[in-house]
Amino acid sequence: MKSFLFKISGFLLAFFLFDKLFILLTFIAPSKEVDQRLEQVVQGNIHAQTIILGSSRAARDISAKTIQEQTKTATYSLAYPGSNVAFQEFILRSLIASHSAPKTVLLVLDNPIQLANDPLLTFRLDRLYPLVKYPIILDELVAQGEKNKWMAACFYLHRIGKSSFDLRQKHFSAMDTILADGSLPVSFQKEDVNWKKVEQPVYDRAKEDSVRVRAFEKIIDICNLKKIRLVCVIPPIYQGNADQVFFNRMKEIIKGRAELYHFDEEDKSYSDFHYFYDETHLKNNGAIYFSKQLGQYLTTKSN
Fold first, then answer.
1. Most buried of 40, 126, 192, 250, CB within 10 angstroms?
2. pTM higher than the cut 0.70
3. Distance CA 190, CA 168 (A)
Protein backbone atom coordinates (compact mmCIF):
# COMPACT_ATOMS: atom_id res chain seq x y z
CA MET A 1 0.00 0.00 0.00
CA LYS A 2 2.79 2.39 0.91
CA SER A 3 4.54 1.56 -2.35
CA PHE A 4 1.36 2.34 -4.28
CA LEU A 5 0.88 5.68 -2.50
CA PHE A 6 4.53 6.51 -3.07
CA LYS A 7 4.17 5.86 -6.80
CA ILE A 8 1.00 7.94 -6.99
CA SER A 9 2.62 10.80 -5.11
CA GLY A 10 5.65 10.61 -7.35
CA PHE A 11 3.49 10.67 -10.47
CA LEU A 12 1.51 13.66 -9.23
CA LEU A 13 4.68 15.54 -8.34
CA ALA A 14 6.23 14.75 -11.72
CA PHE A 15 3.05 15.87 -13.53
CA PHE A 16 2.90 19.04 -11.43
CA LEU A 17 6.48 19.92 -12.37
CA PHE A 18 5.89 18.95 -16.01
CA ASP A 19 2.81 21.16 -16.14
CA LYS A 20 4.85 24.18 -15.07
CA LEU A 21 6.83 23.91 -18.30
CA PHE A 22 3.75 25.13 -20.14
CA ILE A 23 4.11 28.50 -18.42
CA LEU A 24 6.72 29.23 -21.08
CA LEU A 25 4.14 28.74 -23.85
CA THR A 26 1.80 31.29 -22.28
CA PHE A 27 4.57 33.89 -22.33
CA ILE A 28 5.96 33.07 -25.77
CA ALA A 29 2.64 32.81 -27.64
CA PRO A 30 1.68 36.54 -27.56
CA SER A 31 4.94 37.61 -29.18
CA LYS A 32 4.26 35.35 -32.18
CA GLU A 33 0.95 37.00 -33.01
CA VAL A 34 0.80 39.59 -35.76
CA ASP A 35 -2.46 41.07 -34.44
CA GLN A 36 -1.54 42.42 -31.02
CA ARG A 37 -4.48 44.77 -30.60
CA LEU A 38 -6.25 42.72 -27.92
CA GLU A 39 -3.08 42.47 -25.87
CA GLN A 40 -2.73 46.24 -26.11
CA VAL A 41 -6.30 46.54 -24.82
CA VAL A 42 -5.62 44.23 -21.88
CA GLN A 43 -2.43 46.10 -21.02
CA GLY A 44 -4.28 49.41 -21.03
CA ASN A 45 -2.35 50.84 -23.96
CA ILE A 46 -5.32 51.92 -26.09
CA HIS A 47 -6.26 55.51 -25.32
CA ALA A 48 -8.32 56.53 -28.35
CA GLN A 49 -11.33 58.76 -27.82
CA THR A 50 -13.24 56.98 -30.57
CA ILE A 51 -13.25 53.20 -30.94
CA ILE A 52 -14.60 51.24 -33.90
CA LEU A 53 -16.19 47.85 -33.16
CA GLY A 54 -17.58 45.26 -35.52
CA SER A 55 -16.65 42.47 -37.89
CA SER A 56 -15.13 42.64 -41.38
CA ARG A 57 -17.50 45.39 -42.47
CA ALA A 58 -16.16 47.59 -39.70
CA ALA A 59 -12.56 46.54 -40.39
CA ARG A 60 -12.83 47.20 -44.15
CA ASP A 61 -15.52 49.87 -44.48
CA ILE A 62 -14.36 52.45 -41.94
CA SER A 63 -11.01 54.20 -42.05
CA ALA A 64 -10.09 55.13 -38.49
CA LYS A 65 -7.51 57.56 -39.84
CA THR A 66 -10.16 59.37 -41.89
CA ILE A 67 -12.56 59.53 -38.92
CA GLN A 68 -9.74 61.00 -36.85
CA GLU A 69 -8.98 63.62 -39.51
CA GLN A 70 -12.66 64.55 -39.78
CA THR A 71 -13.45 64.71 -36.06
CA LYS A 72 -10.05 65.79 -34.70
CA THR A 73 -10.25 63.03 -32.08
CA ALA A 74 -7.90 60.06 -31.67
CA THR A 75 -9.59 57.09 -33.36
CA TYR A 76 -8.68 53.40 -33.36
CA SER A 77 -10.27 50.31 -34.88
CA LEU A 78 -10.83 47.20 -32.77
CA ALA A 79 -12.90 45.55 -35.49
CA TYR A 80 -12.25 41.84 -36.01
CA PRO A 81 -13.34 40.12 -39.23
CA GLY A 82 -15.66 37.21 -38.47
CA SER A 83 -16.46 38.41 -34.95
CA ASN A 84 -19.98 38.38 -33.55
CA VAL A 85 -21.61 40.97 -31.33
CA ALA A 86 -20.81 38.95 -28.17
CA PHE A 87 -17.09 39.22 -28.94
CA GLN A 88 -17.49 42.93 -29.62
CA GLU A 89 -19.15 43.35 -26.23
CA PHE A 90 -16.18 41.56 -24.65
CA ILE A 91 -13.77 43.98 -26.35
CA LEU A 92 -15.73 46.93 -24.94
CA ARG A 93 -15.75 45.42 -21.45
CA SER A 94 -12.02 44.80 -21.66
CA LEU A 95 -11.37 48.41 -22.64
CA ILE A 96 -13.31 49.66 -19.65
CA ALA A 97 -11.65 47.15 -17.32
CA SER A 98 -8.24 48.48 -18.40
CA HIS A 99 -9.37 52.04 -17.62
CA SER A 100 -9.37 52.92 -21.33
CA ALA A 101 -13.04 53.74 -21.85
CA PRO A 102 -13.54 55.77 -25.05
CA LYS A 103 -15.81 58.77 -25.40
CA THR A 104 -17.41 57.43 -28.57
CA VAL A 105 -18.04 53.92 -29.89
CA LEU A 106 -18.87 53.28 -33.53
CA LEU A 107 -20.59 49.89 -33.66
CA VAL A 108 -20.88 48.71 -37.26
CA LEU A 109 -23.91 46.51 -37.86
CA ASP A 110 -24.07 43.43 -40.10
CA ASN A 111 -27.30 43.06 -42.03
CA PRO A 112 -28.74 40.41 -42.21
CA ILE A 113 -26.74 38.37 -39.64
CA GLN A 114 -26.14 40.94 -36.88
CA LEU A 115 -28.19 39.03 -34.31
CA ALA A 116 -28.29 35.59 -35.93
CA ASN A 117 -26.38 32.52 -34.78
CA ASP A 118 -24.57 32.40 -38.10
CA PRO A 119 -21.26 30.53 -38.63
CA LEU A 120 -19.87 33.53 -40.50
CA LEU A 121 -19.73 35.47 -37.22
CA THR A 122 -18.30 33.81 -34.12
CA PHE A 123 -16.76 34.61 -30.76
CA ARG A 124 -13.13 34.93 -31.84
CA LEU A 125 -11.60 32.45 -29.39
CA ASP A 126 -8.48 32.32 -31.56
CA ARG A 127 -7.71 35.86 -30.39
CA LEU A 128 -7.99 34.82 -26.73
CA TYR A 129 -5.92 31.63 -26.56
CA PRO A 130 -2.53 33.26 -27.19
CA LEU A 131 -3.23 35.61 -24.27
CA VAL A 132 -4.23 33.14 -21.53
CA LYS A 133 -1.53 34.50 -19.23
CA TYR A 134 -3.83 37.48 -18.60
CA PRO A 135 -6.53 36.82 -15.96
CA ILE A 136 -9.23 38.72 -17.84
CA ILE A 137 -8.68 36.48 -20.88
CA LEU A 138 -8.70 33.26 -18.87
CA ASP A 139 -11.85 34.37 -17.05
CA GLU A 140 -13.57 34.95 -20.38
CA LEU A 141 -12.58 31.52 -21.67
CA VAL A 142 -14.17 30.08 -18.54
CA ALA A 143 -17.26 32.24 -19.05
CA GLN A 144 -17.52 31.01 -22.65
CA GLY A 145 -17.47 27.41 -21.43
CA GLU A 146 -14.09 26.72 -23.02
CA LYS A 147 -12.24 26.11 -19.77
CA ASN A 148 -13.03 24.76 -16.32
CA LYS A 149 -12.40 27.33 -13.60
CA TRP A 150 -10.75 24.96 -11.12
CA MET A 151 -8.76 22.99 -13.69
CA ALA A 152 -7.46 26.21 -15.17
CA ALA A 153 -6.45 27.44 -11.74
CA CYS A 154 -4.42 24.30 -11.10
CA PHE A 155 -2.95 23.35 -14.47
CA TYR A 156 -1.34 25.47 -17.17
CA LEU A 157 -1.83 22.66 -19.65
CA HIS A 158 -5.58 23.10 -19.29
CA ARG A 159 -5.35 26.84 -20.01
CA ILE A 160 -3.71 26.64 -23.41
CA GLY A 161 -5.18 25.57 -26.74
CA LYS A 162 -3.76 23.73 -29.71
CA SER A 163 -2.70 27.01 -31.31
CA SER A 164 -0.40 27.67 -28.35
CA PHE A 165 1.89 24.91 -29.59
CA ASP A 166 2.35 26.68 -32.92
CA LEU A 167 5.27 28.96 -32.13
CA ARG A 168 5.88 30.07 -35.69
CA GLN A 169 5.87 33.83 -36.22
CA LYS A 170 2.55 34.93 -37.73
CA HIS A 171 2.49 37.31 -40.71
CA PHE A 172 0.02 39.66 -42.36
CA SER A 173 -1.81 38.49 -45.47
CA ALA A 174 -2.94 40.55 -48.44
CA MET A 175 -6.49 40.36 -47.09
CA ASP A 176 -5.72 41.02 -43.44
CA THR A 177 -3.07 43.68 -42.97
CA ILE A 178 -3.57 45.86 -39.92
CA LEU A 179 -2.68 49.52 -40.31
CA ALA A 180 -1.39 51.74 -37.52
CA ASP A 181 -4.96 52.90 -36.85
CA GLY A 182 -6.20 49.31 -36.41
CA SER A 183 -8.12 49.26 -39.70
CA LEU A 184 -7.88 46.38 -42.19
CA PRO A 185 -8.64 47.90 -45.60
CA VAL A 186 -8.32 46.10 -48.92
CA SER A 187 -7.05 47.72 -52.12
CA PHE A 188 -8.27 45.12 -54.61
CA GLN A 189 -11.53 43.48 -55.64
CA LYS A 190 -12.77 39.96 -55.11
CA GLU A 191 -12.65 37.86 -58.23
CA ASP A 192 -15.74 36.50 -60.00
CA VAL A 193 -18.22 38.99 -58.55
CA ASN A 194 -21.20 39.46 -60.86
CA TRP A 195 -21.68 43.19 -60.45
CA LYS A 196 -24.71 43.13 -62.73
CA LYS A 197 -26.70 40.81 -60.48
CA VAL A 198 -26.37 41.51 -56.78
CA GLU A 199 -28.85 40.14 -54.26
CA GLN A 200 -29.90 42.56 -51.55
CA PRO A 201 -29.86 41.28 -47.95
CA VAL A 202 -33.24 40.68 -46.35
CA TYR A 203 -33.45 40.66 -42.58
CA ASP A 204 -35.25 37.72 -40.97
CA ARG A 205 -36.17 38.32 -37.35
CA ALA A 206 -36.99 34.63 -36.90
CA LYS A 207 -33.27 33.84 -37.13
CA GLU A 208 -32.32 36.02 -34.17
CA ASP A 209 -30.38 34.37 -31.37
CA SER A 210 -31.18 35.46 -27.80
CA VAL A 211 -27.48 35.45 -26.80
CA ARG A 212 -26.62 37.85 -29.64
CA VAL A 213 -29.58 40.09 -28.86
CA ARG A 214 -28.55 40.29 -25.22
CA ALA A 215 -24.94 41.07 -26.17
CA PHE A 216 -26.17 43.93 -28.34
CA GLU A 217 -28.28 45.23 -25.48
CA LYS A 218 -25.29 44.94 -23.12
CA ILE A 219 -23.22 47.18 -25.38
CA ILE A 220 -26.02 49.74 -25.28
CA ASP A 221 -26.32 49.42 -21.49
CA ILE A 222 -22.56 49.73 -20.93
CA CYS A 223 -22.33 52.84 -23.08
CA ASN A 224 -25.26 54.45 -21.30
CA LEU A 225 -23.84 53.59 -17.88
CA LYS A 226 -20.38 54.93 -18.74
CA LYS A 227 -21.79 57.92 -20.65
CA ILE A 228 -20.16 56.80 -23.88
CA ARG A 229 -21.64 58.07 -27.12
CA LEU A 230 -22.77 55.00 -29.07
CA VAL A 231 -23.34 55.31 -32.79
CA CYS A 232 -24.66 52.19 -34.52
CA VAL A 233 -23.57 52.33 -38.15
CA ILE A 234 -25.21 50.67 -41.13
CA PRO A 235 -22.54 50.74 -43.87
CA PRO A 236 -23.12 50.70 -47.65
CA ILE A 237 -23.87 47.68 -49.78
CA TYR A 238 -23.43 47.71 -53.53
CA GLN A 239 -26.48 49.24 -55.25
CA GLY A 240 -28.03 49.08 -51.82
CA ASN A 241 -31.40 50.27 -50.78
CA ALA A 242 -32.54 50.56 -47.21
CA ASP A 243 -33.65 47.29 -45.64
CA GLN A 244 -36.47 48.85 -43.70
CA VAL A 245 -37.11 45.67 -41.71
CA PHE A 246 -33.54 45.64 -40.40
CA PHE A 247 -33.53 49.39 -39.76
CA ASN A 248 -36.80 49.24 -37.82
CA ARG A 249 -35.63 46.23 -35.79
CA MET A 250 -32.45 48.03 -34.76
CA LYS A 251 -34.48 51.08 -33.74
CA GLU A 252 -36.79 48.83 -31.73
CA ILE A 253 -33.89 47.41 -29.72
CA ILE A 254 -32.02 50.69 -29.34
CA LYS A 255 -35.11 52.56 -28.12
CA GLY A 256 -33.46 55.94 -28.42
CA ARG A 257 -30.52 54.95 -26.19
CA ALA A 258 -28.02 55.22 -29.04
CA GLU A 259 -27.69 56.88 -32.42
CA LEU A 260 -28.40 54.96 -35.61
CA TYR A 261 -26.53 56.13 -38.69
CA HIS A 262 -27.49 54.80 -42.12
CA PHE A 263 -25.43 55.33 -45.27
CA ASP A 264 -26.86 57.70 -47.84
CA GLU A 265 -28.66 55.37 -50.26
CA GLU A 266 -29.29 58.29 -52.62
CA ASP A 267 -25.55 58.66 -53.15
CA LYS A 268 -24.82 57.23 -56.60
CA SER A 269 -21.24 56.43 -55.55
CA TYR A 270 -22.58 53.33 -53.82
CA SER A 271 -23.73 52.05 -57.19
CA ASP A 272 -20.18 52.30 -58.52
CA PHE A 273 -18.50 48.91 -58.20
CA HIS A 274 -15.06 50.57 -58.24
CA TYR A 275 -15.69 51.48 -54.58
CA PHE A 276 -16.33 47.88 -53.52
CA TYR A 277 -14.31 44.76 -52.73
CA ASP A 278 -17.46 42.64 -53.05
CA GLU A 279 -21.20 43.19 -52.70
CA THR A 280 -21.06 43.98 -48.97
CA HIS A 281 -17.53 45.31 -48.34
CA LEU A 282 -15.95 48.55 -49.48
CA LYS A 283 -12.51 48.86 -51.00
CA ASN A 284 -10.06 51.33 -49.42
CA ASN A 285 -11.18 54.20 -51.66
CA GLY A 286 -14.81 53.46 -50.77
CA ALA A 287 -13.94 53.22 -47.09
CA ILE A 288 -12.33 56.66 -47.15
CA TYR A 289 -15.32 58.11 -49.02
CA PHE A 290 -17.84 56.60 -46.58
CA SER A 291 -15.73 57.53 -43.53
CA LYS A 292 -15.69 61.17 -44.61
CA GLN A 293 -19.49 61.16 -44.64
CA LEU A 294 -19.64 59.41 -41.28
CA GLY A 295 -17.05 61.78 -39.83
CA GLN A 296 -19.08 64.76 -41.00
CA TYR A 297 -22.14 63.32 -39.29
CA LEU A 298 -20.23 62.74 -36.05
CA THR A 299 -18.94 66.31 -36.05
CA THR A 300 -22.24 67.95 -37.03
CA LYS A 301 -24.33 65.88 -34.63
CA SER A 302 -22.05 66.60 -31.66
CA ASN A 303 -22.23 70.37 -32.16
1. 250
2. yes
3. 29
